[in-house]
Amino acid sequence: MLMIEDFLNYLRYERNRSDLTVRNYERSLRDFESYFKNRENHLSWESVDSDLIRDWMESMMDKGDMASTVNNCLSAVRSFFRFALSRGLVSSDPAHHVKGPKRMKPLPQFVREGEMDRLIDQPEMWSNSYDDLRARTIIILFYETGIRLAELVGLNDQDIDFVNRQLKVTGKRNKQRIVPFGEELEQTLKEYMQQRDEQPVKQETALFLNNKGCRITRAQVGLIVKAGLSRVTTMKKRSPHVLRHSFATAMLNNGAGLESVRKLLGHESVATTEIYTHTTFEQLKRVYKDAHPRA
User: Fold this and answer.
1) Quick check: is 202 catalytic?
2) Active site includes 292?
């Protein structure tokens, strides 16, 4: 159709869009045109309305297209109608007020409780070396408190209150919060700190030091966690943030309230924490499917 060809030439020669962009736009426009022609043969670009565009988008979603794909197609149609209206080729822009589907945030990945228990509790998972003690302490600290990577790296010895079993954590925008911990983490931290102080390296106020005696870096912690989680899981993502997700999921699965988990994680809004309820529901569905005889 000439209107489409004019638009594609406009993209190529006036907007200097890449060949790939032009092909993607053309594919989307041809697909929409085919859709409305199959619906009613007399329909044209001049007679398309907003409802028809929404129906087309719904049909793509029904076929399994992701929200990002549908939004890209809608973007092409929007650009086309803006061009056509500016050239007087159509009398109105039916795509102007059409909203695309919301992009679904991927559910946070987490390590199952049984896998974390195996990693932490089974002696054969760890050697008696100082490096392994430090690694195990870092993993337990992440899993039992849910703190962020930057928060762990920034911990100093004086941030640990062994009497009350709590950490003073400095989070985003330097906001501080108090995070409790249990007896297991208390004993692990004390053992680690004792061995750390016996190492023949320069000491700093940092809780976790690298092998040069300096505050451990984010990258070093990331490698430590990845190596540790690799002992019990093959999941693609094995980062400190996965342990934060694992903490939140374990808390909710074992009866903690959403507001309590929000405070422990340091989230500004409970809406941020609510994504973990989706995670626990997905786990609940898997448990149901595995356990129910007629599922």
Assistant:
1) no
2) no
